[in-house]
Amino acid sequence: MPPPAPSFRDPAGECCSFNGRVLRFVAADALSEFEKFLQTNGAREFIARRKFVSTRRLNENETAALRAAPEWQPLFNAQPAGAVFEHERIPFPGYPHEWPPEMLWAAGRLTLELARTALADGFGLKDATPRNILFRGSEPVFVDALSFERRNPADPIWLPEAQFVRNFLLPLLANRRWGLPLAEIFTTRRDGIEPEEVYRFCGPLEKFEPRLLSLVSIPTWLSRRTSPDARKIYQPHLLADPEKAQFVLESLFNRLERTLNALQPAAQKKSVWSDYMTTHSYDDPAFAAKEKFVNEALREFKPARVLDAGANTGHFSALAAQAGAEVVAVDLDAACAGAIWRRAREQKLNLLPLVVNLARPSPALGWRNGECPSFLDRATGAFDGVLMLALIHHLLVTERIPLDEILRLAYDVTNSLLVIEFVEPNDDMFRRLTRGREALHASLNAAVFEQACAPYFEIVRSLALPGTQRWMYCLKRKGGVR
User: Fold this and answer.
1) Is residue 482 assigned to a domain?
2) Tens digits of residue pLDDT in 296-340
């Protein structure tokens, strides 16, 4: 099987991920500048802090072996590289259309921090897109190592400023003010949201509020007066004094940072599901039994990689991370995913939260659907353990997904362990979801559930949670560990 198509948007080089390796083919005319950047104090510092993807140049023997491998030959033939570099592989890539606002904000902070540090080293960040960043757990990592170029010391302009506004500030503003989901912005737009789009959300008085005035209204008004042929906008405006140019840029970064900080998502953002852990229908003995059951399964199977599907605010995601697993926690509620991110940061957990609806998972995006793989493509076979707690009744009732389809999905995603909670139709939450159509699920019970599991999983053990109509199951994938 050949590697997928490489990245193509940067003429300085291409990047491709295949068979667990991430390789970057750097064009000959960009090689010297790229290696000089990697040797700067700033790049070394960020690599040491694990904020910048670690990078090493392949030696001649390693490059020759790649060139001789049939699966890599098309890349060498397409663009002769000056050198090939290998990056560390970030365990599970999550993209901006799957981030809660907290993660977009953290990615913006890292972008400005890198831009400011590179400035002191004589380099400039040539683009400002969140697609330059992946998350290792809850921590952002800058992965587009070719995004830096030698800058003219007399140049006071940071060309990506408008891109930073479109991709970080305006999405955070629109989400904070009008609740516009980040998925709606980044799924349909490659390069963020324009001021003119946000302007249409504004009421007559809102347009004159200080933050909206500077970020939205004035750019919109000016765009109506600017001729598309006004080429002078894009011509260099060099200053005689390099120190003055640097001062102007540092002032710009400070202003952008202040605006970004003012748009930091609220810590106590509420939603329909964000209070579930304090309002759920379990009493203390039932919840303690559920927690013990999950902990025992984690200790027995010791999964290295865990998917918590329907994670809510991450209580059980945190248990898996504390047990030593690398955890991806998905929930359709952005407020819940944001709460998980905060917990992971505070407790230093290896836990990546993503806003994903399993009934409508993130599709493949980009040119020919090849730039961002779908969530299911990334998840299939990627986990040693899957938690599906208080989830399947939502999929059964709200989304009308057949039980067999839910179990097939779990079978595809896990390599070994599945811990799943079965909720009987006479449970209060189940009945609330059915809205008077209980008859549709009248035949569903624990015996039917176990029978449905049989083609895919072996039941290791089960537990009826005391005082509830719920069962916990520890299941082992049939067919051996993949």
Assistant:
1) no
2) 999 999 999 999 999 999 999 999 999 999 999 999 999 999 999
Dihedral pair phi/psi, residue 134, rounded to 5°: -120, 170
Same domain for 132 and 214: yes
Q: Which residues contact 432 (CB under 8 A, 6 or more apart)?
A: none
Residue 13 lies in a domain: yes
Beta strands at 123-125 and 139-142: parallel, antiparallel or unpaired: unpaired
Domain residues for the domain of 60 are 1-89
Judgement on whether residues 425 and 406 belong to the same structural domain of the protein: yes
Query: Torsion angle, CA of 33/34/38/42, rounded to 10 degrees?
Result: 70
Q: How far apart are CA 158 and CA 234, in angstroms?
A: 11
Q: For residue 270, is it within any domain?
A: no
Both 228 and 314 in one domain: the answer is: no
403 and 306, same structural domain?
Answer: yes
The one-letter amino acid code at 42 reads G
| Final residue before a domain boundary, out of 238, 265, 292 | 265
pTM: 0.93
- In this structure, what CATH number is given to the domain that contains residue 369? 3.40.50.150
What does the alpha-carbon distance between residue 342 and residue 347 come to, in Å, rounded to a whole number? 9
Question: Taking a C-beta distance cutoff of 8 angstroms, is the pair 308, 336 a contact?
Answer: no
The total domain count for the chain is: 3
Q: Could you give the CA distance from residue 148 to residue 47 in angstroms, rounded to a whole number?
A: 15
146 and 79 inside one domain: no
Classify each residue of 125-140 as buried b or exposed e, where b means 16 or more C-beta atoms within 10 Å of its C-beta.
bbbbbbbbbbbbbbbb
Closest CA to 342 of 173, 171, 138, 135: 138
Q: Residue 254, CB half-sphere, CA atoms under 13 Å: how many? A: 6
Low pLDDT (below 70) residues in the chain? 1-5, 77-80, 226-234, 268-282, 436, 439, 442, 480-482
Cβ atoms < 10 Å from Cβ of 94: 22
Can you tell me which residue has the tokens 């840029």?
Answer: 249
**Using an 8 Å Cβ cutoff, are 434 and 386 in contact?**
no
Tell me, yes or no, whether 40 and 106 share the same domain: no
Distances (CA, A) of 150 to 40, 219, 238, 363, 409: 11, 29, 15, 37, 48
